[in-house]
Design a protein that fits this description.
The protein is 58% helix and 0% strand. By secondary structure, it is mostly helical. It has one domain.
Length: 77
């Protein structure tokens, strides 16, 4: 994503890596909890980054989570 922002001269705005991506790696306990806990699985739900979001951010010149996440939810329906 950093390369995308630099390549298209986009201001990071309120972009936060953790908002869109889960941390890498799992412990055996975490895998077990994911299997038995709906609440734990829900904590891993993240909005996807779509091509439409990237395109709109390039047009706007900045990343705006609220605006771009609404575009993502529209494309999923």
């Amino acid at each position: 994503m950093e390369h995308f922002f630099e390549e298209f001269s986009i201001d990071f705005g309120d972009y936060n890596f953790d908002h869109y991506f889960v941390p890498e790696g799992f412990s055996p306990l975490e895998i077990f909890l994911l299997l038995i806990s709906k609440k734990k699985r829900a904590s891993y739900d993240r909005p996807p980054i779509t091509l439409g979001m990237l395109y709109q951010a390039a047009l706007d010149g900045r990343w705006d989570c609220a605006r771009l996440d609404s575009l993502s939810s529209l494309s999923q329906t």
